[in-house]
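User: Can you fold this complex?
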Amino acid sequence: MKTDPAWLPDQAFRAIGTRRVVVCGGDGPVVRTVVDEVTRACARYGGRVWHGTAGSPDADGADLLLVLTDLDCLPGEAAAVRAEIAPGQPLGKEGYALARPAGATVVVADGPAGLLYGLFHVARLGEAAFDGWRPLEVHRPASARRMLDHWDNIDVHPVMGQVERGYAGGSIFWRAGEPRDLHRVREYGRLLAAIGVNAVAVNNVNVHATEARLLTDRLGDVAAIADVLRPFGIRTHLSVSFASPMVLGGLPTADPLDPRVREWWSSAVADVYATIPDFGGFVVKADSEGQPGPFGYGRTHADGANALAAALSDHGGVVHWRAFVYNHRQDWRDRTTDRARAAYDHFAPLDGQFADNVILQVKYGPIDFQTREPVSPVIAAMPSTSVAVELQVTQEYTGQQRHVCYLGPLWASILRFRPWGPDGRAVASVAGDGGGLVAVSNVGDDPFWTGHPLAQANLYAFGRLAWDPFLDPLDVLDEWISLTFAPCPSVLRSALHEIMDSSWQVYESYTAPLGVGFMVNPGSHYGPGVDGYEYTPWGTYHFADRDGVGVDRTRASGTGYTGQYPAPWRDVYESVASCPDELLLFFHHVPYSHVLRSGLPLIQHIYDTHFDGVTKVVEMRRRWAEIADFVNAARHARVAQLLDEQVRCAQEWRDQINAYFFRKSGIPDARGRHIH
Ligand code: GCV
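Assistant: Here's the predicted assembly.
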C-alpha cells in the first residue's frame, strides 16, 4: 500500500496551487523546499510560480507573495507588511507575518524556516487565505525547541522489538541493522515541517551496542538522515550512552571528571560536527532502568551532563539530559522511595549547577506517562535550569495505537497548568524559556505512519501545541480533520469529532480510575493487570485493600510528595477536601464510601465510569461504521478493525476493574448491574 499522505494530501495545497505565487527568498535548502511545494501544487492545479533571489520581481497580479525580508528583492506589498511589525518585536528565525492588505496574500519572514512555516499556515487556511482583507498577524513559536525523540533501535531488540514502545511497525530510519531507503524520512520531514517540529533524535534513549556506534563509526548513517531532514528546518540529534568513552573509546572509565573522558567526548563531538555541521546535540538517559550514569563514579547528574555539554558548547550543540531517574529495583522499598518523588529528589538540589547548554528533559508527570498524573513538580523546581517538558505521543499507556485516544486535551491541560497558582507562569512558559517541548514519536514504517490512522492526530497536535500551547486542542483536531480528510464533508467532520474529542476521557473512564495509574499488564503495559505491579511491601502499587484505594502522598501521613510542589498546590493536593477528584487516588488513600464532587461514592464512580466507557466505545464504533462512504476504504477498514479491538479491550478492563473492586470492597453496584 502507498504511504498515507496524512495531513498533507494534494488537496491541502489546492488553494495555493490554483494561484499566481511569487517566492522571493534566496536559494538555501529550506527556501528550495518552499519553492518545491509551491511548484508541485501549481503543476497539479494550474497555478503559476515565480521564484527569484534578487532584483525586483514582478509582483503585480500575484495572489500570494512569500518573501524573505533580508533580500534586496522586497516587493512593495511585502515591504509594507514588514514595516507594520512593531520594531521591538523581531520575527526571529522561525516566525512569520501574514497579511492580505489588498488583492494579494503576503507572508514575510526573516529566516527561511519562517517562510516555510508561513507557507504551511497558508495551506491550513486554504481558500480562506485568499478571501477579502486580512489584518497583520504575527506568528512565532512559543518554544525554540520542538523535538521528537524516536525510541528506534537499528537492530531488532529481543524483547522491545525494533521500536521500543512502538506501535506502528518497524523504524522509519533503520531496517535489519542498516539504514533504510530515506524516501520515507523525507516525507516524514515534510509532515513535521508542516506542524513546526524542528528537531528529531533518531535512536532509542536505551542505547544498545549497535546504536552506540552511531556516534563514531556509524556517524555516516546519521549524516544521511540529517541531510534529508535539513531542508525541512529540522536538526538531527543522537541518543548516546554515558559509557561511550568506555564502550567506544576503550577507556577504563566514563567518570565525567576524568580528563581522558572529557578529552574523548571533545574529540568525538568535533568529529560529529565535521560531518554534520548543524548537528543538534545529545539525548541522555543516565542512571535509569539499567543505563550507565554518573552515580557509578560518585558524581552528580550535573557533573555528568556538564561533561558532555562542555564538548558540545563550542559547536552550538545541547545536551537533553533526562530527569527520568529512579531506582527501578527499589521502587517502594519504603515511603521515601515513592517513585513519584524520585526526579525531584535527584534534580531539585542541582538547580543552578548545570551548564547553559544543558536542557533538563522532564516527563510531564512524576511517574511515567500515565493517562492521568499531576504535573511533575520538577518543572517548578529548577528556575536556573533550562527545562524541557517531555510528552509521549506513542501511546504506551494510552491504548498503544489500538485505541482511539486523542491526547491534545491532556497535553493542553499540562501546558496550561500554573505550578505557582493562577497568577503564576504556566508550564508552557517555563518550557518556552529555553528547554522547549519534546515528545516520543508514534511513527513507524506502517503505511498509515502511526498504526492507528486516527493516532496521526496526536502527532499533529504535538507539533501544533509545541508551536502554540494555548491553541484549543479541539480546534487543532479540527485542523487535522480538515487537512487529512480534505475536502471534508460536514457529516464526516461531525462524526470524527464525536469519536475523537473526548476519546482521552473515555479511555480514562474504562481504565485506571482517578489518577491511581499503573493497572496495566507488566512489561507490555497493554490491557488490564490490576495487581500487575505488585511490589510494594504493603501489597499492590495502588494500595487497594478491603476498605479503600489510592496512594497517600501527603506530608501529614504519606510519602511527603505533596511537599515537592510550591504553594498553592502543596496544600491543594495535601487535603482530600481540596484535591481535584481526577487526581484523588494519586494523592490519597480513601475509603470506597468517600463521596466525590459528583455526589457519588468512589466505588459507584468506579462502576459507573467503567460501564459508561464501554458504552461510549461501542458508540464510537457505530459512528465509524456510519461514515464508511466518506473515508478511503483502506483507512476505514483499518480503523474498523481496531475499534473491534478497542471494544473488546474496554470490556476486559471494565470486567476486571469492576470485579476487582467488587471483591475487595464487597459493595454491590447500586444500579444492580451484573459484575463479572
Ligand atoms: C525507553 C518507560 C518505558 C520504557 C522507556 C522509559 C523511558 O519506563 O516503559 O520503555 O525506555 O519509560 O522513558 O526511558
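The chain has three domains: 10-139, 146-472, 508-551+589-665. The pocket of 4-O-methyl-alpha-D-glucopyranuronic acid is lined by residues 151, 164-165, 205-206, 285, 324, 368, 396 (CB under 6 Å).
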